[in-house]
């Protein structure tokens, strides 16, 4: 590759990583979490360049494919995977998973300037200072538990490829025997049973989502939740995840008031920055960063634009950079796709939560129309509705039929959509994604009556044989799904939207050689059973 082309590519990669919240630095320090080398750079050249004899523990060295895949899959994929290895790197046992503290940079959406000629390696910072390592491990089961919880909470969001049923790097989780954090937790427990380590997965617990007023950390939780919502609305997955982990931990520590930096930093998933924020909340009863975020007009505008259907963060930033400050500005001046235009026109409709009763009414209209097409096709309202939410962000509907495959259901979907348009129930189509293993249709629907808001409605066709796995996945919530998936992989299985599998065989380059053996896909309860998880009704799957 020509040097100038290489430089341009590298610059693009850097900008992309920054867009997703990474901070890029060009000098080595103990805040670095990842070193991303150009693909022709060898491990020893990196050591030479950095003037090190070895890469310090906790820092991942990867090729440029890693940041690309993180963005593609919407998660921090494991940098130790084969695909991301730099030529000549030490074996896995010599490395440690660096992802227990997600890279976090401030402020939201901040960009740092690039030098005109970046060096051949770049580093992403900051990395919270290493945590106190535990004393001697006392309990091997607890060790496995801690490794598993950590991975579940920090490194395993839903993988797009799993979602589509194709290969995924998350099938093979690393051994639960090696985490220092797990040893730390081990000393705080005496139980030794396998059942006990499983009980620490989110999916093993009954969650109601309610904040316990008795919890001494209620105020901290409340403020962190507000901050998390801001990051979430900006699709800042790394920070959202860090906050979610911290909140989840604080919710479960019902008896301990977390008030010092030492206490905070010892919590799973809490790094230096978050620990400082917890201390700030405890000592000042507020979080300055939250107040700035609430005040910062740029954040507000970005959030406004990013809330438009079909507008991603990159596009929203471009609108801000172009000087637009209102939806009207964009409508008048920007080039928009049709779904984006509808997204602006129906902005306030799509932002409103939909009362449960109304979701039901939409669901009933769909199922009545379906009966006139094929009596045997069933529709099920999924997502937050199935979990019993009192209001929902959208209406998620699965279409399925005993014994039917995707092709047959796809035809039903086409007829259904046409019929619902004719009845003036569907107001617009926004997107359609057709895959061999399922078809999704996005649009908007409206109940009859003057001034009724348009609601976001999604249809998904699911072959009859896969309904159990699809039920599990589309009931969520997303954290519960991650937890179940991780539990499956810990037990040598693989769970996705299509089923629970065992024995997925991989080649030496980790390419998937078979789909594995299907254990269960039709019966949701059996999936729980095979995983050794007590069945949890949908309303108790809120993590
Ligand atoms: N899902 C998931 N991971 C994602 C997105 C979705 O596991 N990243 C699953 C779990 C969700 C379900 O799909 O519950 C439906 O997705 P929604 O985005 O519609 O989420 P909810 O229905 O849970 O919430 P809302 O009321 O906001 O629509
Ligand atoms: Mg939903």
From TrEMBL:
GO terms for molecular function: DNA binding; DNA-directed DNA polymerase activity; lyase activity; metal ion binding. The lineage of its organism: Eukaryota, Fungi, Dikarya, Ascomycota, Pezizomycotina. The active site is at 277 (nucleophile). Its EC number is 2.7.7.7. CDD domains: NT_POLXc. The keyword Coiled coil does not apply. Residues 1-84 form the BRCT domain. It is found in: Nucleus. Keywords: DNA damage, DNA repair, DNA replication, DNA synthesis, DNA-directed DNA polymerase, Lyase, Nucleotidyltransferase, Nucleus, Transferase. It comes from Arthrobotrys oligospora (strain ATCC 24927 / CBS 115.81 / DSM 1491) (Nematode-trapping fungus). Its cofactor is Mn(2+). The keyword Nucleotidyltransferase applies. Residues 112-125, 166-178 have a biased composition (Low complexity). GO terms for cellular component: nucleus. This is DNA polymerase. Gene3D superfamilies: 5' to 3' exonuclease, C-terminal subdomain, Beta Polymerase, domain 2, BRCT domain, DNA polymerase beta, N-terminal domain-like, DNA polymerase, thumb domain.
């Amino acid at each position: 590759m020509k040097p100038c082309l290489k430089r341009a590519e590298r610059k693009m990669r850097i900008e992309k990583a920054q867009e997703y919240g990474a901070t890029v630095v060009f000098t080595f320090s103990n805040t670095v979490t990842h070193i991303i080398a150009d693909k022709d750079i060898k491990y020893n050249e990196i050591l030479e360049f950095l003037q090190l004899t070895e890469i310090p523990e906790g820092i991942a060295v990867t090729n440029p494919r890693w940041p690309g895949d993180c963005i593609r899959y919407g998660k921090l994929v494991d940098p130790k995977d084969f695909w991301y290895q730099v030529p000549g790197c030490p074996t896995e046992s010599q490395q440690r998973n660096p992802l227990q503290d997600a890279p976090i940079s401030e402020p939201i959406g901040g960009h740092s300037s690039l030098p005109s000629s970046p060096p051949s390696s770049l580093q992403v910072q900051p990395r919270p200072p290493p945590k106190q390592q535990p004393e001697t491990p006392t309990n091997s089961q607890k060790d496995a538990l801690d490794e598993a919880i950590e991975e579940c909470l920090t490194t395993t969001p839903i993988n797009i490829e799993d979602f589509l049923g194709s290969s995924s790097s998350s099938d093979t989780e690393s051994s639960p025997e090696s985490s220092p954090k797990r040893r730390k937790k081990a000393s705080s427990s005496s139980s030794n049973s396998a059942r006990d380590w499983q009980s620490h997965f989110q999916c093993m617990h009954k969650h109601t989502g309610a904040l316990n007023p008795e919890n001494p950390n209620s105020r901290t939780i409340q403020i962190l939740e507000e901050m998390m919502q801001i990051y979430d609305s900006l699709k800042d997955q790394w920070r959202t995840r860090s906050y979610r982990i911290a909140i989840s931990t604080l919710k479960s520590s019902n008896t301990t008031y977390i008030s010092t930096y030492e206490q905070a930093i010892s919590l799973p998933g809490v790094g230096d920055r978050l620990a400082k924020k917890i201390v700030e909340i405890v000592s000042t009863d507020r979080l300055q960063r939250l107040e700035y975020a609430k005040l910062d007009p740029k954040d507000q505008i970005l959030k406004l634009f990013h809330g438009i259907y079909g507008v991603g963060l990159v596009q929203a930033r471009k609108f801000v950079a172009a000087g637009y400050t209102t939806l009207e500005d964009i409508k008048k001046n920007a080039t928009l796709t049709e779904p984006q235009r509808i997204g602006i026109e129906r902005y306030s409709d799509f932002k409103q939560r939909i009362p449960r009763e109304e979701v039901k009414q939409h669901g009933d209209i769909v199922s009545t129309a379906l009966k006139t097409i094929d009596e045997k096709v069933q529709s099920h309202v999924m997502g937050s509705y199935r979990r019993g939410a009192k209001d929902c962000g959208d209406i998620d509907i699965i279409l399925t039929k005993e014994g039917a495959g995707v092709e047959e259901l796809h035809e039903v979907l086409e007829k259904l959509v046409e019929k619902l348009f004719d009845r003036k129930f569907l107001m617009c189509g926004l997107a359609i994604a057709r895959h061999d293993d399922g078809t999704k249709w996005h649009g908007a629907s409206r109940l009859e009556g003057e001034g009724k808001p348009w609601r976001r409605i999604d249809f998904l066709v699911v072959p009859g044989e896969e309904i159990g796995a699809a039920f599990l996945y589309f009931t969520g919530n997303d954290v519960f799904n991650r937890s179940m998936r991780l539990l499956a992989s810990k037990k040598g299985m693989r769970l996705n939207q299509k089923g629970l599998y065992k024995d997925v065989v991989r080649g030496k380059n980790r390419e998937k050689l078979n789909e594995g053996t299907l254990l269960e896909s039709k019966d949701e309860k059996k999936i729980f059973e095979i995983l050794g998880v007590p069945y949890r009704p949908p309303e108790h799957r809120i993590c």
